[in-house]
Amino acid sequence: MEHEQKTLNVRGKNIEMLVGGEGPDLLYMHSAGGEIAWLPFFESLSSKFKVHVPAHPGFSNSSGLEEIDSIEDIVFHTTDLMKELDLKNPAMVGLSLGGWISAEFATRYSERISSLVLIAPVGMRPPEGDIFSASPKEMRQLVFSEPESDLAQGFIPDQGDAETMTMAFRAKQATARVGWNPYLHNRKLEGRLYRIDVPTLIIGADKDALVSEEHCRLYENGIANSKFVNIEGAGHAVPFERPQDVADAVISFLVG
Question: Least buried of 49, 108, 125, 256, by fewest C-beta within 10 Å?
Answer without folding.
Answer: 256
